Amino acid sequence: MRILVMSDIHANYTALTAVLNEAGEVDETWCLGDLVGYGPDPNAVVEEMRDIKNLTCLLGNHDVAITGKMPLETFNGDARKSLTYHEKVISASNVDFLNSLPSKTKVRGEATMAHGSPRDPLWEYILNTLTARLNYDHFTTPWCFVGHSHIQCMFALDEKKDRVTLEQTKPDVTVQLHPKLILNPGSVGQPRDRDPRAAFAIYDSEAHTWTPRRAEYNIVEVQERIREAGLPEKHAARLAEGW
Ligand code: ZN
Fold it and tell me: 160 CA distance to ligand 1 centroid (A)?
């Protein structure tokens, strides 16, 4: 099966449609969460996601905030401003959809999926080899897909030496999967790895390959909508440089 794996769309509808176009025909779509937060288009993004066939979608920490199950004070000032706006404009049926998403890890075949980490699915960032090492004890499949950090990368565990390495994967360079890997497709709507293009990955569940990809999109147009909505300037500025 050819599977589109993506995460952290963050209400950026233009980036989402660019990714769906670039990915082309897929058998399934796996989304690791955070449909809302930061960007200008919460309703358009959730509606687009609801239309995707064969979708598996996890709940992200920003999504939980919108469903009212977590106080917005949990988030820092600028993130909170966007969430307050999203809470105000999002439709009831889109909130119902977010409410239906699972907040725990999901296992499909050889892959475990989590928004943040298998150990703490909603909140933990896997940003370094130490955190990655601790998380290897929390999944049993050969590989695990995570989002949340907005960085397209891969952790590998050498089981004999008990050593973890971190590699920034390269767009369009296919990785042949082997146990034990933790892979992050990067963020669709707010990349933080200094490449402003929308990030995603194509997972082939039979050939056991993972191809990180990037899609160009009209960033200026999204920045304009962020400013029109009165959202923090920081959320507009960072899109141009990917931080
Ligand atoms: Zn996120």
Answer: 33
Indicate which CATH number applies to the domain containing 46: 3.60.21.10
Q: Ligand 1 centroid vs 50 CA: distance in angstroms?
A: 19
The total of other beta-carbon atoms located within 10 Å of residue 92's CB is 6
The CA 60 to ligand 1 mean position distance, Å, reads 7
Which domain does 196 fall in, by range?
2-240
DSSP-assigned letter for residue 190: S
Asked if 19 and 198 count as a contact pair (C-beta separation under 8 A), the reply is yes
pLDDT, residue 64, reads 94
pLDDT > 90? residue 72: no
Closest CA to 2 of 22, 29, 20, 40: 29
- Please count the structural domains in the chain: 1
The answer, yes or no, to whether residue 129 has pLDDT greater than 90, is yes
Instruction: Give Cα separations from 146 to 203, 214, 235 (angstroms).
Output: 13, 17, 23
- Whether the model clears a pTM of 0.90, i.e. scores above it, the answer is yes
State the distance from the centre of ligand 1 to the C-alpha of 186, rounded, in angstroms.
Answer: 10
161 CA from centroid of ligand 1 (Å): 32
Is residue 73 very low, low, confident or very high in pLDDT (cuts 50, 70, 90)? confident
